[in-house]
From TrEMBL:
It catalyses: 2 GTP = 3',3'-c-di-GMP + 2 diphosphate. Keywords: Nucleotidyltransferase, Phosphoprotein, Transferase. Residues 4-120 form the Response regulatory domain. This is diguanylate cyclase. CDD domains: GGDEF.
Length: 464
């Protein structure tokens, strides 16, 4: 795994030893011997991770953490703070100020490398799912990072019994704001998509000692549970096992006896990062959906139509789909609505027409606003006779009731003209399928217009 790591330590020998270990693992390294230099390098070089000594000649590590987290350019860089003393208060303060972990010297090499790999993996995942630089302003998500207050769910995986009950009660005390339930490993592995999935699985030490670290890939390999964060609890002194757990995909390792305040800080940070990631993912999915939607009517747009027609063409070429029909629909004399009542009234009419079109179609049909007052319906599996029946139903639905229009006391009457075309499996020219079939339906639409409007014409020019 490649990555740029900034080493901050005032002792040259310490920097040299760490650099040698990291370069042997194929990491690139930057080095700083004081806090001010570290802050400048973090700003200018944007390293993937910072290894930071607590004691520096100018600024202590806590202050550096705070300043890095307060700078939008550096606030998401993982920080591993280390100290020659194992002071609990130092550790808690470091975690509160934004350090991702606090390690005591001499550093356990296996655990250090496991933690580095875990943090870099998480950072890479975050970067790949982050929106482009210009996207936050477009989506209204340009505000600074803030604490998330969503209700979180935690599931504790344990072996059951009185000891487990006491252990679960202790964990509920660690994070009282969370919904916490206890279950066995077998129950966790059998969770289905109908179950409200937790944000966090916490695996007790007795499960790890009995089942081994295989628990981690078992949980992370299932679609139902892989989206949850995973924390394991180990007996004291099991740093090597903790390093292996991090490499297998655990986000955090806690050691017995649990320090409630420290556990709360560590788990709260994991949950906050998960909620931020989930929010970005939801925003990204919304943007993808909007990219293929017409903003006025909510219907799919032409981009979506092209993608679906390519898929249908491939299915017809292989014989997976026997027929496909296309309707091209145009509102009759729609320009007069805009000219008489204005474009706002025209938008209202288009929105209501879209609603009526949806109601007249089958669930498998694809309805698209093609442009202006023109719509396209793709009907997988339909032949020309089935398509004509649906087209005639659309004509009746659109024309059956008037439309309320701004600026008019009387309901406006509208009609549509529809062109129909259909193809069977095994057609020639698969690559031009969309262009060919939509073109034929469009030719039929022009014939319907020329024939007096408010009618259906198929590709064979047989008027309805």
């Amino acid at each position: 795994m490649s990555g740029l790591i900034l080493i901050v330590d005032d002792l040259s020998i310490n920097r040299t030893i760490l650099r040698a270990k990291l370069q042997a693992a194929c990491y690139d390294c930057l080095m700083a011997d004081c806090g001010e230099q570290a802050l400048l390098l973090a700003q200018d070089e944007n390293p993937d991770l910072i290894l930071l000594d607590y004691r520096l000649p100018d600024i202590d590590g806590i202050d550096i953490c705070q300043r890095l987290r307060g700078n939008p350019a550096t606030r998401d860089i993982p920080i591993l703070l280390f100290s020659a003393t194992a002071d609990r208060q130092q550790r808690l303060t470091a975690l509160r100020m934004g350090a991702d972990d606090f390690l005591s010297k001499p550093l356990d090499e296996s655990y250090l490398m496991g933690r580095i790999r875990s943090l870099l993996r998480t950072q890479d995942h975050r970067a790949r799912h982050a929106m482009p630089v210009a996207m936050p302003a477009v989506t209204g998500m340009a505000e600074g990072a803030a604490a998330f207050t969503l209700q979180s769910r935690m599931m504790v995986i344990c072996n059951g019994g009185a000891a487990c009950d006491g252990f679960c009660n202790d964990l509920r005390g660690v994070m009282p704001e969370m919904t916490c339930t206890c279950l066995s490993l077998q129950q966790a592995l059998r969770l289905d998509t109908g179950t409200a999935m937790p944000d966090l699985f916490l695996v007790s030490a007795d499960v790890i000692l009995q089942k081994g670290l295989q628990v981690i890939p078992d949980l992370l390999s299932r679609n139902q549970t892989r989206q949850a964060e995973l924390c394991i609890i180990l007996p004291e002194g099991q740093e090597l096992l903790g390093a292996m757990a991090l490499d297998l995909g655990a986000r955090e390792v806690l050691h017995l006896p649990l320090d409630a305040e420290e556990a709360n800080l560590r788990l709260a940070k994991i949950l906050q990062q998960k909620q931020q990631r989930d929010a970005l993912q939801q925003a990204f999915e919304t943007q993808l959906d909007q990219a293929v939607r017409d903003p006025l009517t909510g219907l799919f747009n032409r981009r979506y139509l092209c993608a679906q027609m390519a898929r249908i063409a491939a299915d017809m070429q292989t014989g997976a789909l026997s027929d496909c029909a296309v309707l091209v629909i145009d509102l009759d004399h729609f320009k007069s609505v805009n000219d008489r009542f204005g474009h706002n009234a025209g938008d209202d009419v288009l929105t209501e027409v879209a609603r009526r079109l949806r109601a007249a179609l089958r669930s498998s049909d694809i309805l698209v606003r093609y442009g202006g007052e023109e719509f396209v319906v793709v009907m997988p599996g339909a032949d020309v006779r089935a398509a004509r029946r649906v087209a005639q139903r659309i004509c009746r639905t659109v024309h059956s009731r008037g439309y309320d229009v701004r600026g008019s006391d009387a309901a406006l009457q509208l009609s549509v003209s529809i062109g129909v075309a259909a193809e069977h499996a095994g057609f020639a020219g698969c690559g031009d399928f969309a262009k060919t079939i939509v073109g034929r339906a469009d030719d039929a639409l022009r014939a319907a217009k020329a024939g007096g409007r408010n009618r259906v014409v198929s590709g064979q020019n047989a008027a309805a």
